Each structure stands twice: as structure tokens, then as C-alpha cells.
Amino acid sequence: MIEQIKTGILSILVITSILMSSMLWYSAPSYAPLLTVMNIEQTQTSSTQYNLDDIVIPREFVAIEEGVEYSRVHPSSNVFNTIYDRIKSLNITNVELVEEAYQLDGITSNRAIEMRFFNKMPVEYLGLVFRIDSNELNKLDTLVHKVTLFYDNDEDRSRILFEGSQIYIANTNITEGRLAEIINLASSTAAQRLQATDFAKQTIRVTELSNSLFPDPTAIRQIEEVGQSVIYTDGSRGLRINHRLQTLDYTDPTAEYRYREVDFATMVQEAIKFLNRHHSLVGNYILAQAIEVSRENNEYTLVFQQQYNGYPILSTRELAISEISLKMKNNRVIRMNHASIYLGQELERSVVNVISAEDIKTIIERRIDISDNTHDIYLGYYPVNVDEETIQLRPVWVLTHGSVTRNVFDAVTGQEIRI
């Protein structure tokens, strides 16, 4: 009797947790994608194991000439792969805070290569890219959104900048000649051409997903909600499917008590294992954001961005297809949010010429002041012409202010798309 009461109380807690919380997240070929999640109908096991080295991919590389942006390299090119291979695992030493403007003279007068990310990332993220010991890493008291490599002629050595709310400078072991080769590669990229593609619109098979998420499928109970939502629960975990919003929300309150050791790399690896274990979507994802919810309580939110041909897919108000959000506590997944639909088979494809970064900036500046350092642009894909059966992805230029998407422009015509 007591056990039945405990089970009933836990079931109520699970359902209450789902009902009271809202979705956290609505808002190019690629370099070693984080994971390719197979349709659960095609396979029941993941045949690929992913390492931490595979998941940290910058949004793009930007070649800088005398302080001015010269060209961009996106993940759709082999040049991107070559540059990233040469930059990964550089040794970083002698980190110091930039307190005087003269410390940046070398970067404004020389050529440089920038790594830009989707969002500001915690410094632990950098430990997944570079060789930097914990003492040096702890000096970086900031979230980082851009990393710049350049050769300082005055110091006669390669230097690296980490930029966030503050700027830090450090030494690195890349040679002047090797760095020049990388910048030359980035500067030689041709005009951008991207695909505009129609996909079949597919819906996740709830039965198969719930069988994967719940250890004992025979214990699953189904609860109908008002507003076209259904909750599946086994008394310990809950899966809420919102058919109107086309989203799903999975919670496991018991997971946080199973593991106590907290380490950023281990936490990310645990998230990858979870996604591999419950492969329910078709697509490629990279780690795009890591939010520290509470260091004291060991809580983080990891956001995995869906890519098409290595470029990010944006969500619309009606279609939250771009991201998978995992809430982590004590290195375990206690919550997962993402769309209940996915991109199926490619139906039709065309190749289009994309407006250059300089040209789109000119178009934007006619309407919006983007002269400060808080605005940025990048290429991505936006779902258009969405109906019951198909989704079309169209190339767009995305204007951000800080880490927030502000405007979206058709990358072919330059016209603004209302979001």
C-alpha cells in the first residue's frame, strides 16, 4: 500500500512538472557533425560513437585584413575543414586580461583569422578545442563568443584573443608561416552558392520514441490534456506531446540523483550518449550553446543546433525545428525539448547565388544602425512555404544583436522576411 502511494505521488509530481513548465527554446557539407540521428524506424541502435573533438564546431571562420573583414568560410566547404584541423589543439599559454588599447595594435595592423560561435560559450567550452591547462582557463572570467588568431610583429610571436564581455590575450604555438597559410586559405574562398531544398514533413512516431525513453513500455499510461496535448508517463518519467505546437517535452526528475561528479566535458559526453541512445530525429546537430543555470546546483542547459549542409536552421513561430534543448543536472539529462516533426526525404533542390556579406550589410545599413560591435550576421536556413506535407528551407542572412536574432533577410533577394 505504501509503495502504491509513493508511486502515485511521484506520478503527480512528474505530470505537474510537465504542465507547469513551458518550452525553453523557440526563439553547411559539415565538419565532423556532432551526431547524425537516424530515423528510429530505420534502426534501433546507433552504430556511430561520437567524441568530444567532433562537437565543437564554430559557426564560421572570418579572414581579417588590417582590421577589416575580408572573407568568410562556412562549414559547407573543404577549406573550413582544413582550417579547423590546423587550429584545433593549439597550445594556449600566458593568458592575461587586455587592459590597455595598445595591446590590440597587432591585430588591427595585421592579418588575422576569427572563429565565431552562435552564442557566448562558457570558458570550459574552450577546453574542448584548445590545449589549455585549468590554471590558464580559470583566468578567462568571461563568456566567449569570438576567438581571433593573429601574428604580433612587435612581439614576434602568434597571439590569440578571447572576446566576450571582456577581452583576454594569450600566446599560442602556431608558427607565422602556418598562420599565414590558414589566412590565405580563408581569403581564397569563392562566391557563395547554396541549395534551396524542399523536404517531406515527417512526424516522430510517438510509440517508438516512448518505448526508447521508458525502460518498461508496459508501465506507460496515457493522459489526454485540453489543447491537443498528450502526456505519457510510467510514474517516474513524463513525455508530453503538443500536437498543436508540434513539440515534445520529456522530463526525468529521478535522473539528477543518479550521478554526482560534475565536469563540463563529461557532461557534454553524457548528453551525446543520451541523444545517440534515443535517436528519434533525422538530421545533423552541433553544440551551439551551453548555459550555466546554477553552478551551485550543478545545472546547465545544452542547446544543439540543427544544421543543413552545415548551416543552421532557424525556427519559426509555428515550427520550432531548429534546436534540441537538454537540461542537465549532476551530469544527467533531466529534461529534453524539441520539435515533434523533422525533415524527411529531399523532394526538390535548386542551387542559388547568395548575396555577399558586404552587400547584405549595405542593404541592412539603409534601415538599421549596425555600426557598433554588438551586431553580427551569418548565413543560415529558414523554413518557408510550410504546409501539411512539405517544408522548404531557403538560404537567409541572419542579423543578431548580442545573441538574439533581430532580423532575417532572403539571401538571394535581400528582402526582409518577417519572423
TrEMBL record:
Keywords linked to the UniProt accession: Membrane, Transmembrane, Transmembrane helix
Membrane-traversing stretches: 7-28
Source superkingdom: Bacteria
All copies of domain Regulatory protein YycH, residue ranges: 3-198
UniProt-recorded name of the protein: Regulatory protein YycH domain-containing protein
Source organism per UniProt: Desulfuribacillus alkaliarsenatis
Record lineage: Bacteria, Bacillati, Bacillota, Desulfuribacillia, Desulfuribacillales
